[in-house]
């Protein structure tokens, strides 16, 4: 018994140490700074105000579908924001698109997926998540047209609020700031010698510092730091504990156990993976080591199709989140939403496994 406990602890530590050594410095730290900058510098209200039933569809669904990269939130954070949108008169289509896309294309999760599970799976996750979010939203809007009709009547009497901008700094500053941050991330994760990468990272860091000193207010820099720290303290401890626990689990339950269920790109495997993802609760980023280590994607046990299906369903829905959603928009709409996520996640995984691998 003692040998089993020691063995599981050693395996857990080895798994955690491997993830920390390979991914934290070059991947997670820059990604946290980018996510913090997005949270601090991108105005959420400027996006969320376009979600009404009367809004232009291309604008409403386009913004809602990429909201995760802008807001950098997880499934637990998206729920109160979704509730606020839903109650303040958003169309059900853009609202559910926002609900799904928020956690599905979280900038941290996409970067981490590409770094740990492979660039192709990271790109597929982002692309399919955007397409799925729009399709799910359009179907919800079609099925529940009466909800939008009632919402339009309620919104008719509401006064519009003018948007106040604060564009004191040149328009190129913020985009260039993000270019520098993303450049640091790309250079850090590139498969190149550090003698080549270090000067590039150094120059990009100097450029970032120059912009911060000469173009940003002290309050903006402080808010960036606070947002980065807030994301880090919320996500990083869970990621460490979860990765260690998954390493221990793999000692007792090796990935080979899951080969009969997730070892092929069949529709049965992708459908099962999407159901598992819908039921399980996985904090942000933890889905990556779950797929890579527990289900054995990085060791070749889990096929790409089921892996993508789980990546598309897992972060966006879970039993706890579905219970909360049902209190916001009712059981009927929630059941339809969950069903759409399961079906489209399975189909996306099957398409990816059959035609892109």
TrEMBL record:
Q: Which domain of life is it from?
A: Archaea
| Gene Ontology cellular-component annotations | plasma membrane
Record's keyword terms, sorted: Cell membrane, Membrane, Transmembrane, Transmembrane helix
Name where it mostly resides: membrane
Kindly list the places in or outside the cell where this protein is found, as annotated in its UniProt entry: Cell membrane
Which InterPro entries does its entry note? Answer: DUF318
The residue ranges crossing the membrane are 20-42, 63-86, 92-114, 126-144, 172-192, 199-216, 236-258, 270-291, 303-323, 335-355
Q: How does it sit in the membrane?
A: Multi-pass membrane protein
Concerning its family, UniProt says: Belongs to the UPF0718 family.
PANTHER family registered for this protein in UniProt:
UPF0718 PROTEIN YRAQ
The identity of this protein, by name, is Permease
Upper lineage ranks? Archaea, Methanobacteriati, Methanobacteriota, Stenosarchaea group, Methanomicrobia
